[in-house]
Amino acid sequence: MGATGTWTTGGFRRLGAAGSAAIALGGWAVGTLPAHDPWGLWVDHGPAVRAAGYALAYGGLTVLVVAWWLYGRAGASVRDTLVTLGWWTAPLVLAPPLYSADVYSYIAQGAMVLEGHDVYSVGPSVLDPDGPGGDAAASVGGHWTGTPAPYGPFFLLLARGVAWATGGTLVPAVLGMRLIALGALVLVVWALRNLAREHGRSESAALWLGALNPLLLIHVVGGVHNDGLMTGLMLAGVLLALRGRWITGSALIGLAMMVKSPAAVALLFVGVVVGRAATGPVVRRVVKGLLAPGLVAAAVVVGVTFLGGTGFGWIGTQSVAGRIHTALSLSSDLGLGLGELLRLLAGTDPDPVKAAVQNLGLLIALVLIARLAWHATTGRTEPVRALGLALLALVALSPMVQPWYLLWATAVLAATASGGRALGAVTVLSAALVYETQPSGSTPPYGFVLAALVCAAGVLLLRRDRAGAGRGHVPGQRRPLETAANAPAETVSETASGADAPGAR
Questions:
Q1: Is 3 a domain residue?
Q2: Residue 411 CB coordination number (10 Å)
Q3: Whole-number Å distance between alpha carbons of 373 and 308
Q4: Looking at the domain assignment, is residue 495 inside a domain?
Q5: Domain membership flag for residue 483
Q6: Which domain holds residue 201?
Q7: Which pick of 82, 130, 141, 319 has the fewest CB atoms within 10 Å?
Q8: How far apart are CA 259 and CA 254, in angstroms?
Q9: CA dist list (Å): 365 to 391, 424, 425
Q10: Over the stretch 28-60, which tens digit does the pLDDT of each residue have?
Q11: pLDDT, tens digit, for every residue of 86-114?
């Protein structure tokens, strides 16, 4: 406790670290445990241990979310925030996979590439159960065992490297993939700080929402999702384009696309940046903005595809993920409901109706993205912030939505938005969506209730802050005077200068 009786940022750091440690400890009992671990480390210990594991994991998760929210209100410096990120990340590094079995798919697909299988036509079930990657393939979720890979050749090259280095042995392979995720987190941190600086935003605030975010910690570090790598490469590419190095930036975005295809949206807004910075006649500037970044990224895509030796089958597998229904997809929910209603009333097949509504959702998303690009072109919206809003629209209207997809937009908005409804929405949703997945990777039947309660609490807290501040702001976007008043003694001098204070402009 501080001298005034209030918690310091150090207190919130320790609180969050305790929550993270509880998640990790609970994960040894109820994480996404493999079907078979030859080392005997990640195994089921029975119902009593599972019950204790769930209590630890959910209790720790709630503690982490509360600590994160309060930490954002405390006005920490950049250095303090980076130290806190290390504290909160460390317990998750050696834990079993958490909240998703996707990492087993990554390892199995890497082993498939290593053995010469076509990952874009067959699934992990083709692997020899006793061979490299066999344990990972056996641990892949049931509906994914026969599913081709939806990921790009660059990511599969990395997965192949992990499979080669570890022989596909489960625990080392998971830790190898997690090492890639940690590298992606470092890239995200670097890009966030520099993007925030480019936009006159607080680096601390950007790090708080874009990197210290519990949704990122549990799904990128704990769950080892490759969305972290895609986001890090995309952010770095956008940053370099803003600084005039658009060729290198476009190449990095091309690499991001070769992890997951949604990164392609960033090319449109990099094109806006390039076109606005170009000189000469309007036609020349438009052509340069529309074509140049795309040509660079296309060259990278083709080069990586040939280097990976996996062919262009990834183009045809982009719809693979949409084959399963996710409750977070608005278009899928609406399509399913409308299809079932028409089935009852007219006896029609509900599947074509659902597909039509899903396609309509994507069409609306494309229209919104095009409109945001036009606003960025005309100067009505800053291009990188427009990219964040475009990614938010894409996630909201996609036929398949997972909680961690929100991170695509959150990272961009964290570095570019100083307030507004979009920033408030991603902040509240970051706290709420952590409850949409169990540590075992399954969707809890009560998850939407917990998420709704957190959303309601978050909205009420934001409204209270808005009323008290006289303007809208979220935790992490504190006013300089508030920050100086509440900062711990060791950071007051930084805060008062405005250099590192969340909310400093």
A1: no
A2: 29
A3: 33
A4: no
A5: no
A6: 9-468
A7: 130
A8: 9
A9: 9, 21, 18
A10: 999 999 988 888 888 888 899 999 999 999 999
A11: 999 999 999 999 999 999 999 999 999 99
